[in-house]
Amino acid sequence: MGFEDVLCRFFPKVYTEADFIEKTYSILDKAGFNADNTIASANVCRDEISQTIVSLIRERWGEAFNLSSLAGMFFAGRTALIAGMHHAPIEAGRERYVYYALPHIAIGSGGEIGLCRRKGREKEGSACGALTAFHKEMTGGRVNLSMDNEDVEQSLLKMRLLREIPYGHVPDLLELTRMTHKVIQTDLENALNNIVDKERCDYALMTGIQIHGPNGNYVWPASSYAVINGARQEITF
Ligand SMILES: [Zn+2]
């Protein structure tokens, strides 16, 4: 099986990153969000191959607030969210925020899950590297759950994701990536629910999984919605 077969099998509906950003912009534009009245925030992995989507967000929405951590986990927390909100434009007394939150995974040209080729490196690398490292610890039978002050984000990642993994089960990288997506969504939406003043602010949360293919990046869109005047509207793709 090659890249296309594996992509179709596990992610039946994908957009190129550029199409995903265009599509979400046009849907949200109709709902009242645009580059002039909205601040966008990006929550993706720190990996340089993940930054292409941030560039596209920036091109469409203007400079974006950076919420990113390893694997795209939402560790930036309340302080970061509130800071981003305070930077939003105010139009007729209303503020608008758009959040893009995506973990990532690579699929190699031969359909290998997790493998990607990086510029200037002969040997194939992995993505997401942080999830791959965690997966390796699990398959090795010993997961270090202490808080390593010299590896804070990876320590937090393991502690947070292990809460979702049934005892004794070792998910493969694909399952682990899907779990990570759910965790990012849950943690970010809980924080937004608690923090956003819906009386005077509208916001949208766009989630999915960023996929690195041999010839470019794709997005598998997942749960996405806007909250306008306090009412939630689902966004479908
Ligand atoms: Zn990563």
User: What sequence of helices (H) and strands (E) makes up the elements?
Assistant: HEHEHEHEEEEEHHHEEE
Beta-strand content estimate:
15-25%
Q: Into which percent range does the helicity of residues fall?
A: 25-40%
Stretches where pLDDT is under 50 for at least 5 consecutive residues are none
Form type: globular
Sheet/helix structural class: alpha/beta
The radius of gyration over CA amounts to 18 Å
**Main β-sheet: number of strands, strand sense, barrel status?**
9 strands, mixed
Overall number of domains: 1
Q: Quickly count the helices.
A: 7
The overall pLDDT, averaged over residues, is 96
In the CATH hierarchy, the architecture is 3-Layer(aba) Sandwich
Could you give the distance between the termini?
A: 27 Å
Number of strands: 11
Which ligands accompany this protein?
A: zinc ion
Describe this structure in words.
With 237 residues, the chain is α/β, with parallel strands linked by helices. Helix 2 (17-30) packs parallel to helix 3 (51-61) and helix 4 (77-86) packs across helix 7 (173-195). The two termini are 27 Å apart. It has a single domain (3-234), classed as Beta-carbonic Anhydrase, Chain A. The strands form two sheets. Strands 1, 2, 3, 4, 5, 6, 9, 10 and 11 form a nine-stranded mixed β-sheet that branches. It is built from seven helices and eleven strands.
